[in-house]
Every structure is written in C-alpha cells, then in structure tokens.
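Predict the assembly for these two chains.
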Amino acid sequence: MSIRTGVSFYSYQQTQFFGKMTWKDMIREVHDHLKTDGVEIIDEAIIRHYPFPTEEFIFDWNNEMARYGMNAVTMDVYLDVHQFRDHVMNHREAAERLKNDIKIAARMGFKNVRALCLVPTDVIEMAIPTAEKYDVRIGKEIHAPLPIKAGVHHGKIDPVLDPRMVDQLLELIQKTGTRHVGLVPDFGVFQHKPTDLAIAYFKRHYNPDMIDYILEKSAQGHSTTDVKLMIDEKFPGNGLHFMTLGAIAINESCARPEDIIEIIPHIVSIHGKFYHMTEVEGQPGTFEDKAIDYATPIQYLKEHGFSGYINSEFEGQRYCHDTGIENMIDEVEQVRRHHEMLNRLIGK
Amino acid sequence: MLDDYLIRKDSLQNVIENGKVTGFKFAVRIADYRGCFLSLVNGYYVQCDGIDYPVSLQRLEINQRPPRSFAEIKKCVWEHWDYDDEAFLHVTKEGGLADGLHVIKLQQSILAQYGYMPWDEAWVQNPPVPGGGAGSGKTDTISTFQLELQKQEVMA
C-alpha cells in the first residue's frame, strides 16, 4: 500500500477566522477537490464546547465524516499548563488532560492524537492505559528545531526543547512494549532555507539591511548562535525576537532526510508542513516549496514501505496578515498545490 | 497573527447601565489558530485616544454571560472560549466616548502555551501585565485601530 494523503484543517485557519469555511466545508474540499480522505484537526479550533463536546456535535461530526467516507487520522491536542492559574499544572494533571483528549478523539473516530514536543515523557506514559483502552495512539511531534537523531547537526538556539526527545520516546516504547505510542514528524525538520514569505515579512517589520545581513551570514554557514552574536554587535538594540531569527537564519535542515528511515515503524502520521507553493519554472501546473525538501524524505518513505498519512499543514498565511485582506494568501489554493506535489512525489 | 483584525471594525459602542453611560465596549477575537480555556485570558493592553485602561477597568462578555471582571475570568478554569466566537471587551470610563473616530491600541494576553516553560511559576505568582508581548499570539505587536463610535445600546 502506498503513502496516503490528507489535510490538517490548521491549513485553513485564516479562512475559518473570517468565517469563509466551516469544518464541513473543509471536509468537502478534501473529498471533492483533493479526492482524498485524510482529516486532521486542531481540537480547540474545531470542537464546539471543548473539552465537553455535546452528543449532538459528536454525532454531527461522525455523520459528516461517514457521509463522505473520510478517515479521521489525527487530532492535535495541547498542553496549557496555566489552565488553573493558581498553580502550574503538574504532570499527573497534564496526563488527565491528555487522557480526556484521547477519549474525545475516540468518540470522533480519530486513530491518533498528536502530543506536542514539550509534553514530558512521563505524562505520555501515564496516559498509555487510556490510549490502549480506547485504541488511540499518542504520537509525539518532532517539530523544528528538533532533530530526529540528536547530535548530527550544530545545535539551534532553543531554551526548552531537548534534542534527545526521539530517543527518549523510543526508550519509553521499548520499556513498556506499548503499540500505542509513536511519533508525528513534521516536514519542517527538512526545511533547509528560509521561506520567501518570511523574509519579506521580516523586512517589513525590521531594518531590511539587518535582515539581509542575517541571510548573508547564515548562507555563509554560520550557526544561529553565531549570527545572533554578530547582529547584536553590528545592530545594537535591534529588538530582534528569538522566533524571528529562528525563522530566517536557516542554512541546513534540523534533521537529515535519511534519519526518517529508522523511525518509520513508529510514525503514526506526518505533518506535511509547508510555507509557500510556487510553480516549478518551466513546468506549468507543477508546484514546489523551495524551502523544504520533500522529494528525498518521501523517496525514503516509499522505499521503506511507509503506508500512513502525510497531512498537508500550511503555515505561510501568518506572514501575509499584515498588509491588508486583499494581500492574504489563498489557503485553499496552497493546499491544492501541495497535494499536486505530494501526489506526484508519491507516484499516485 | 491576524492582530489587525482582532477588533470588529463596526463594534465600538458606549455602554449604558441603569441609564448612565459607564464606559465603552468593542468585539474581539482570539489572535491565534485555536480557542482557549477562559481562565487563560489574562486581560488586554488597551489604550484609547492616548489613555491607558488597565485590566482592573476591563470586563469580558463571552458565552452569553454578563460581563465578568478578569478576577472572575481567572477562575473559569473549565469554561472555553471557542475559536469561532466573538467576545466583547468592556472598558469602564464614566461618560463613555464622544461621537466620532477613536484610536484604540490593543494587545491580548492569553496565557496559552505549548507545554512547560521556565517562567511558569513566576507567572502564577505575578501574571504578566498585558502589553509586553506575553500571550499576544504569534506576533508581539500592539495593533492600532481607528474606530467610529456606533449607536448606543441600552443595557438592563
């Protein structure tokens, strides 16, 4: 069986914000236009009255999915540790939230929940009995700047993420023998240069000379840490946000494409993160994301028999929100282009 | 992220309570791609015509309930602000706003996170003051809105 495709409704967030598409419209777009069946959602974007959805909502969801023969692949769940405000949620409480999310996912027919990179391993461990009981797998996300294998590239600045995350999760799987814990790699780990939309955005909001300087130094091979030191010296008081530098000082991917091979048995689904699909020069109707390597990892996934879902996850819209509604990017069209590329690379 | 669209342009109104104009209000959305537990809404940086209005003068009207102070909102640990929904932010200002255009500067502070962070305990003891970027969403800008005061609405 070949690789399957779907869409994370995260991709349509701006369209949803402006009330132009409901989740039912999104399901129809995936079914009618993309001719595929994979659906991924953000729990707190789609589920009315989360975390206590009504029976009516659940039935409406399941009915609509059944109507079009869709497959509820993964529900992305969160960890807001300040929910109680009078104390930081402890790990046992975090596990309770995850367990409740698993139960909601099961009621909506989802096979997996996506847990964030920062969810502690022991929280996932405490939720395993619930995952097994409801037959919903917990997939921990491998999101940039995390690598798949620790120590293969120079470290990127990050105050909280542990680069050994994947190893820690594989140890948990080995220790418990569970089949209900796995990984959700995000294609952002194969981003090897900044996207043009981010460069344009940050040039509108910071000194364009400084942005050019960052791009130049980064392209020369300097690490993010070094670039930070350089700009602090050359542009004192630059006010550059940590996230900004992380988005544009990119000269190599966090993960090596070949590192995906070893984790294939543990992948529950994949986030097909992308920023900007543009037409391949001289090939009308053929699209690519110039900043992210899709061809190499997909080749490895095919060669090693991955038959799960890659769900399109468009994230370029946020770099187009500052210059008027008329200049916002068409999320529906971007996802259609992304699916053209996925289908072509998968060989459908 | 969508910060310039957080206030609905035709939503600025004076608030009349018991026959007196007690302040003004406008409709707000969440500057993110998901909803949040209501308790996480830590208030707003609000400036109107050059005057700052601290959180103690703000109330949030959401989920078909009367406006609640942020001291009350903080306790709503199981209530959710769904992503598609609009809330009204009420600001106490005796006499309200004059007719015409007003310049409002706004930044939300919603303490949503992707897991544990080094500042967690500090935020429980001393929640961030809105306006510094904490909880502002994907961007840390303060957005500026030029809004025309709409017809007044009588509240019970």
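The interface with chain A takes residues 1-5, 29, 33-37, 39-40, 74-75, 77-78, 80, 82-84, 111-118, 120-121, 123-124, 127, 138, 140-141 of chain B (CB under 8 Å). The two ends of chain B are 36 Å apart (CA to CA).
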